[in-house]
Amino acid sequence: MSATVQKQRPARSTRLPGPLNRKIGRAMHDWRMLDHGDRVLVAVSGGVDSLVAAWVLHQWRAKAPIEYEVEAVHIVNDPVDAAPVGDMSAESIGRQVRGWGLTYSAVAGRPVPEGEDRTCFICARNRRSQLFDFARQRGCGKVALGHHKDDLIETFFINSLYSGNLSTMLPRQDLFGGRLSLIRILSYLEKRDVLALAELAGIEPVANRCPLAGDTRRDTVRELLAGLYAVVPGAKESVFAALGNVRYDYLLNRPPISDHGRRTDGMDDYGASLSARPTDQEQI
User: Where is this region: Disordered (predicted)?
Assistant: First the structure.
């Protein structure tokens, strides 16, 4: 990909609030989300999060020390966004995105195969596959998504409670041998921060018409977490910090065992030394 990019400057720059601007900048720096010459495709669903992500990427070009291009795409779901309602949604999104000076495309979604139930997983899988294909067609090596801190925490609990694994979405995730990277520039912002930026930018989100909206695992986990946050001060920050502070030795991964019944990672001797002295660590 050529490193020479014609810089697309915002026609009118809106100054981001300092604390939020620093959080976004720290996320971009920590995960090296942008490089000079990048072509970034922003996936805009019409929700407030993805529209804010597109707006922020556009605004950042006015001051970024590097040059990069941004364009947006909306995958029109079928039949949830079926015409004429889907066309109206796509046009509402396009009107805002084009108003910022971004190239915008609305692409008809792939239909769910006959006989296959429409679920969040199926819709997300179809959209993600189509998004990757469109990024390749447009020569975009980065795909920006609108997930924020609350989404990352919720995903961790969804995977823990429903799938039995400890994992979440990454602020940057390289795919296909590094040929494509997903970036989530809002990863260090809370939902309330995103809403504040939406108000600043005058963003008008499109209503979510999915028939499953409000009745998903994410909604259930979000409600559970709201109760937790209400009784444990600082819980959100602690959980988010824990996602990057993993103590692997105190998780129940099966250790490698040799033919002689000893651990091959040297932890037999380590465990013996620990048992010989008192400790206040609950994990041991």
Answer: 1-20, 261-284
pLDDT computed for residue 84 by the predictor: 41
Measured CA to CA, the distance from residue 226 to residue 104 in angstroms comes to: 36
How large is the C-alpha radius of gyration of the chain? 22
Amino acid at 232: V
The values of phi and psi at residue 39, to 5°, are -110, 120
What pLDDT sits at residue 32?
Answer: 98
The two tokens of residue 183 are 């970036």
Helix axes 191-201, 18-30, angle to 10 degrees: 120
Which numeric CATH code is attached to 18-242?
3.40.50.620
Looking at residue 36, its pLDDT comes to 98
Neighbours of 169 (CB within 10 A): 17
Question: Where are the chain's structural domains?
Answer: 18-242
Question: Mean pLDDT per 10-residue run, the chain (284 residues)?
Answer: 42 78 98 98 97 97 94 80 57 95 92 66 84 98 99 98 97 98 99 98 86 77 98 98 96 75 55 43 40
